[in-house]
Amino acid sequence: MTALTLSTSGAATLRADALVVGVAKGAKGPVLAPGAEAVDKAFDGKLATVLETLGASGAEGEVTKLPAPSGLKVPVVIAVGLGPVPAKDDAYEAEALRRAAGSAARALKGSKKAGFALPAESAEDAGAVAEGALLGAYAFTAYQGGENKLAPKSAKSGRNDAKLPLAEVALLGAKPRDKAFKAAAERAVAVTEEINRARDLINTPPNDLYPESFAAVATAAGKEHGIKVQVLDEKALVKGGYGGLLGVGQGSTHGPRLVKLAYTHPKAEKTLALVGKGITYDSGGISLKPAGHNETMKCDMSGAAAVFAAVVAASRLGLQVNVTGWLALAENMPSGNATRPGDVLHMYSGKTVEVLNTDAEGRLVLADALTRASEEKPDAIVDVATLTGAMVLALGNRTFGVMANDDAFRTSVHEIAEEVGEASWPMPLPADLRKGMDSPTADIANMGERMGGGLVAGLFLKEFVGEGIAWAHLDIAGPAFHEGAPYGYTPKGGTGSAVRTLVRLAERTAAGDLG
Q1: Among 257, 440, 441, 501, whose Cα sits 20 to 30 Å from the Cα of 22?
Q2: Interval 316-327 mean pLDDT
Q3: pLDDT at 310 over 70
Q4: pLDDT digits (tens, 9 = 90+) for 58-112
Q5: Active site residue 113
Q6: Quick one: which of 480, 492, 508, 362 has its CA closest to 422?
Q7: CA–CA gap between residue 459 and residue 455 (Å, rounded)
Q8: DSSP β-bridge partners for residue 366
Q9: Per annotation, catalytic residue among 73, 289, 398, 492
Q10: What's the whole-model pTM score?
Q11: CB 227 within 8 Å of CB 263
């Protein structure tokens, strides 16, 4: 994990491999952002002119590398684009700072230390820069230990130095002795380390990450961070009547698990329950996915990874709220033991479900977990899942959908997501779509109308939420796994989508801001 320091050095005196400054897109060319003054001075006041000559505009994510002049102690200056210049008297938005810092950190892969002189006039700004840099520096290298005799090696790891993430981020101008700035930095480290832990889990190959091994990771983290962990194995699931989890997992040699993580605070007045879909690999089961749709299905546990990360982050931050995480873990495989289309499952809630499509499995494991979470009467439940391709068709690859049984709660979750920089959109749960799940055999079918499939899935889940409990459903099928080129602080592969939203929701709940 990349280290973070609040540096007492100035931009002109910092010794590092590189110095990062911000540049915005102005009406007449690039405009230097606050924090770049000392660097501009070293360029005799001509840094913006030099950047423009090199073709830089200040557009978001643009990275321009310059050899540093003699007035600086670093060999390289990196100018990163922040996007449009803010209106007069407005500050740069936190998300613009996150993305710029992330782009710079990615460009510094293989470096030992870099100074970030981006705008950090407030503790919030400093926290945003820190988050972006630490997330942008992420690299999943656990399986990259091959020999390359021509490339320089890291003595400790055996991997190519050029593949290793930036080792240290030094934040300049962040008032290291100020309590608010120190708190913002500490929060950024805790949250980003857990996001990156979630990313590691999502990126881990499914032959190494399956329900039992995921449960072992959660158990170890619980011991480290004072979180009570309970794991229900196959015998306990059979005894408890968890038909959804058992039905999905019975086709695999790796049995299902339901993991409960409980973080409690002695002064907490509210309890928040988080439920995550944890399909460690999704072949589709007997309703096998077509060719071209299997290769990234290790990411179908992204919801459980987000819930796990959020609970650990809440513990690390010492939030004055009780947070319970439920990880519904199973591997969906075709075999002679697998659930068939037409089978009826007896759910933990007592309801029966006719399985019309075994590839609509996420809602089945979530249904059992939602019922179990509801039994503890939390003040609110939020589930997170890579649930439907329909949501990707509706909102694209970067935005997740928010559904709820309470309009005010849905609005709050949506606003929180936007506040922390996670693109989301409120979606309805039209009552007329419920009829499509009527079954002549069971209480409900796991499939309904094809059109509006993401909303149908939300309506199915709603059936398993306890009476009088505010509930929201986040369908993160689009942004959970990024298959394109990295951008901003978003890497290729697992993204850790929804972790920041869940953590901020827990913070708001602790502060009593959600009613």
Answers
A1: 501
A2: 98
A3: yes
A4: 999 999 999 999 999 999 999 999 999 998 778 899 999 999 999 999 999 999 9
A5: no
A6: 480
A7: 6
A8: none
A9: 289
A10: 0.96
A11: yes
Q: What does the radius of gyration of the chain's CA atoms come to, in whole angstroms? A: 24
Alpha helices in 243-295 (DSSP H): 243-249
Tokens found for residue 384: 């997170």
Alpha carbon distances (Å) from 228 to 260, 264, 267, 322, 470: 8, 9, 17, 12, 24
SS3 sequence of 361-425: CHHHHHHHHHHHHHCCCCCEEEEEECCCHHHHHHHCCCCEEEEECCHHHHHHHHHHHHHCCCCEE
pLDDT digit string, tens, across residues 216-254 = 999 999 999 999 999 999 999 999 999 999 999 999 999
| Residue 155 reports pLDDT greater than 50 | no
DSSP H or E run through 352: strand 352-354
User: What's the first-to-final CA gap in the chain, in angstroms?
Assistant: 37
Distance CA 177, CA 174 (A): 9
Q: Is 363 a catalytic residue?
A: yes
Indicate if the pLDDT at residue 175 is higher than 90.
no
Find tokens 């740069």 and name the residue. Answer: 92
Catalytic residue among 316, 363, 504, 508: 363
**Hunting for tokens 């609110």 — which residue is that?**
380
